[in-house]
Amino acid sequence: MSKLGSGMGGREHAYVEKRLSAYVDDEVSGRERRRIEAHLAHCEACRADLRTLRWTVGLLHQAPQVKAPRRFVVREADLAGTRRPMRRMSPLAVTQWATAVVALLLVLVLGGDLLAGRGRLPIGSASLRGEHESVAAAVTQAAATDTARTDETAQAEERVAQALPEATSSPAPMIKSQAAAPPTAEEAPKAAESERAGETPMAAMKAPGVEATEGVTATGEAGIMLAAPEPSPTTAGGPQGEPQGGGGLPPAPLPTEPPAIEPQQTAQEDMPRLGAQAAPTPSAVAEPYGLTARAGSENTTVLLLWRGIEAILGLALVALLIAVVWMRSRR
Amino acid sequence: MEESALLVAAQGGEREAFNRLILDYQDLSYNVAYRILGDPDAAADATQDAFISAYRALSGFRGGSFRSWLLRIVTNACYDVLRAHKRHPTVSLDADPELDWAEWTEGDEEPPEEFAERQDLGQLIQRGLQELPDDQRVVMVLCDIHGMAYKEIARTLGVSLGTVKSRLSRGREKMREYLRGNAELLPARYRLYSEGGGAAGLMSLLVEWLDDGLLGRLLRRGAGRYE
Question: Residue B33: which domain range?
Fold first, then answer.
């Protein structure tokens, strides 16, 4: 009634309506109360609202209380029970956990793959090209590199000894063999090489071939690696050739003869003591390749097994991710 | 042992101290859960879960009102149940009409007839509460069924005072419409006088208003002056 009476009525009405519930509980400020009561005094509709609201609240207050049906206590079993939350785990939670575990496993397997022999990655591409023998060779070398450095060193020394007479007598054919070495063979030992290069930067700078003290294969690789990106022997001997070894992913083009031979010669001249060991490098590169190729079949099996695990984990991860997305969308 | 001593002991890992502590809150917690969930079994489960959660979280209790802290966990447990039920709608939340209320409700010393009528009222209120959105129902239960102050409700639920007020206002409005729409189910003495409650109903309401409204407000105002 009164709400139609004045222009202020509509606004006051809304103001009061909004606060009537709090007014019933006396949870309004003094100013609000005065304003509400001033409106109530001449608004019958709001007074009726207040009445019915009080009636409602009054009834709710009279709702009977119920007694707890039993005594609730926390028992030892309630706390020790890891079974309970396990049972309560939703399928989505289980799937999410499984996804996390599989992802972790995949990372571990891939990480192990990379760490075990950084040479494996390019080898993987080689195997795609069907070069099984070179793969096998690289795997053997990579395994030797990471599992038993001492073994590798011994092996390398052996190879040096074998290659030594050949190298001194006829350098030219040796170079050819080095040049013909498949790109994979050169990359396998790069982990060992880069480490060593780090230890003896001076030697690496002067002549990559010198590094053959520890592993002949490394020297061979240095020769090729340096020759591949930059044919000039002078730059090839520079230290910047070393970091490229770490990323030796592109199949190295077969080097031309001169750049490959150049570093070897400088090594011999600069460091005569090491020269004897450095010289045979080219043939040594070819040698392990040939040796390891014989043991190829079993290593291929290991490699294929490893790759199989990776593939299964990868597929499982994809499947689980799809499942998680699907389950979430269904929620 | 008083509450604070029991609390310290319980926080020190004494399970028995905790169980004695929650003994005083069993009925309150169960009632809150029952009114929010509308199902005796679900309420019992929620209460049990809440107490276990409370025991585990006890180290995180940093003083203040234990009641508010505990009720917060109870209401959270109820929200969990409500969410779970929403995902599996096959579980009915309706109050069980077959339930023998008289057997397990608190028996006051009121005459049997009035007691029975109060049970009817309780059931109607429960059905009305079920019609409300969860948030509004929770605030209604804490305020109108259990008489908690706005501030304590805000603290318990972790919401602002304004939120408590608006949820309460909207919930009460809906409840009013529900009760008026189902007035024929109400025992005569609870009906609104204008809707046929008779002289007795009018008198009881008048008394209630005076008691609950004017007088109560005057008393509270008086008390507030000395604060």
Answer: 3-87
Nearest residue, CB atoms, B105 vs list A22, A26, A66: A66
Q: A331 vs B87: CB contact, 8 Å cut-off?
A: yes
Which CATH number does the domain housing residue B138 bear? 1.10.10.10
Q: Torsions phi, psi of A249, nearest 5?
A: -75, -40
Two structure tokens written together for A135: 């793969």
Partner B, chain A 48-87, Cβ-Cβ below 8 Å: 51-74, 76, 78-79
B147 contacts A61? CB cut-off 8 A: yes
Are residues B181 and B145 part of one domain?
A: yes
Q: Which residues contact B122 (CB under 8 A, 6 or more apart)?
A: A63, A64, B101, B105
State whether B210 and B179 are in the same domain: yes
* Tokens 């003495």 sit on residue: B189
CA distance B203 to B205: 5
Chain A contact set for B27 (CB, 8 A): 65-68
- Sequence-distant (6+) residues with CB within 8 A of A143 are A116, A117, A299
Q: Look at chain B and report how many structural domains it folds into.
A: 2
- The tokens 């007020």 sit on which residue? B165
Query: Using N-to-C axis directions, what is the helix angle for A171-180 and A257-270, rounded to 10°?
Result: 130
Residues from chain A that touch B208, judged by Cβ atoms under 8 A, are 54, 58
Q: What is the CA radius of gyration of chain A?
A: 40
Q: What type of residue is B22?
A: I
Phi, psi of A66 (to 5 degrees): -105, 150
Q: Which of A236, A228, A231, A172 is nearest to A205 (CA)?
A: A236
Written as six digits, the tokens of A23 are 């007014």
As beta bridge partners, residue A66 has B105
- The ipTM (two decimal places) reads 0.78
**Residue B191 DSSP one-character state:** S
Query: Which single residue is written with the structure tokens 């929010």?
Result: B36
Q: Calculate the CA B69 to chain-centre distance.
A: 15
Q: Rg of chain B's alpha carbons, rounded to an integer?
A: 19
Whether residues B61 and B135 fall in one domain: no
Reported as half-sphere exposure (CB side, CA atoms, 13 A), residue B85 has a value of 18
- Give helix B66-87 / helix B150-157 axis angle, nearest 10°: 60
Domain match, B195 and B137 both: yes
Residue B101 lies in a domain: no
**pLDDT of chain A, 331 residues: tens digit per residue:** 444 444 456 888 899 999 999 999 999 999 999 999 999 998 999 999 999 999 999 999 999 988 888 889 888 777 765 444 345 567 888 889 999 999 999 999 888 878 776 554 444 444 444 444 454 455 455 554 444 444 544 555 555 455 544 444 444 444 444 444 444 444 444 444 444 444 444 443 444 443 434 434 443 444 344 334 444 444 444 444 344 444 444 444 444 444 444 444 444 444 444 444 444 444 444 444 444 444 567 778 888 888 899 999 999 999 999 999 998 887 6
* In a shared domain, residues B176 and B75: no
Query: Is the pTM value of this prediction over 0.80?
Result: no
User: B76 lies in a domain?
Assistant: yes
- Type of residue numbered B133: P
